[in-house]
Amino acid sequence: MARVLVVDDDPRFVRAIVRLLRGRKYEVESVLDGESALRALRRGNFDIALLDVNLPDIDGLSLLHQLRDEGNHTPVILLTVHGRAHEQALGLRLGGDDYIPKPFDAEVLVARVQAVLRRTAVGGPSSGPAERPPATREDVLELPTVRIDLTARQVFKDGVAVRLAPMEYAVLEFLAVNRGRAVAKEEIMLHVWGIERRASRTLAEHISRLRRKLGDDVIITQTGFGYLIPAAPTSLDSVTTTP
């Protein structure tokens, strides 16, 4: 059972979210300020955090930045009454996994939580690191300069490990397993975030971050269609004929 930390300074909002998530069989704790959130998240026993950006002591973006600097990669969904694009972009650049403007539909929140947990493959806070079998050829995707280990969920650029946020990896993996096909934005959003709409700006920001980390030529924009990782050359492409 996944454990959720709810961080918000509005007690009525917190009670409503806690009641909603417990009704969906999540284990939920809540705190009302940033300092308490830092202490709770540093314990390392949460699978995901719902973090309000506008906290009374430490704003949520600064808190997120501090966590990531400490090497804490607990998935975080940012919540705010503002839907400003620059604020959303900054939150994603700092390592946020999703961003939901308030007010939001309860089903949308649950779907986003489920999507993040699904893509980060939680095994419970006390389960510890899972033992993974060695990767087989079928578990590894080779792009021209990028290698994706699907078993370990690791990505390498020119042989060097690249750290991706969970949702960045989810987008890359989905495009990679559909290599050679232009994937519609709505299809990516449904697979990764569990919702077809209202995440297009979030998707664009994740694509931008992936390009910065892996190179501009890994993911191609197909105008009017979506995004594409080009197909691997076939063996016929390297065959030369002689008269």
- What integer value in Å does the Rg equal? 19 Å
What is the beta-strand fraction?
15-25%
Average residue pLDDT: 80
Query: What is the count of DSSP helices, taking H or I runs of 4+ residues?
Result: 8
Count of the separate structural domains: 2
Order of helices and strands: EHEHEHEHEHEEEEHHHEE
CATH superfamily of the largest domain: Response regulator
In short:
With 243 residues, the chain is of the alpha/beta class.
What does the model show?
- It is globular, with a radius of gyration of 19 Å.
- Helix 4 links the parallel strand 4 and strand 5 (98-101).
- Helix content is 38%, strand content 18%.
- A 5-stranded parallel beta sheet has the order 2-1-3-4-5, with helices on both faces. The chain has a 4-stranded antiparallel beta sheet with strand order 6-7-8-9, covered by helices on one side. A two-stranded antiparallel sheet has the order 10-11.
- The chain has 2 domains: 3-120, Rossmann fold; 137-228, Arc Repressor Mutant, subunit A (Orthogonal Bundle), CATH 1.10.10.10.
- The protein is of the alpha/beta class.
Can you give keywords for this protein?
four-stranded antiparallel sheet, Rossmann fold, alpha/beta, disordered C terminus, Arc Repressor Mutant, subunit A, 243 residues
Layout of helices and strands, plus pairs?
Layout lengths: L2 E5 L3 H13 L3 E5 L2 H9 L5 E5 L7 H10 L6 E5 L4 H9 L4 E4 L4 H15 L19 E3 L3 E4 L4 E4 L2 E3 L3 H12 L7 H9 L6 H15 L5 E3 L3 E3 L15
Parallel strand pairs: 1-2, 1-3, 3-4, 4-5
Antiparallel strand pairs: 6-7, 7-8, 8-9, 10-11
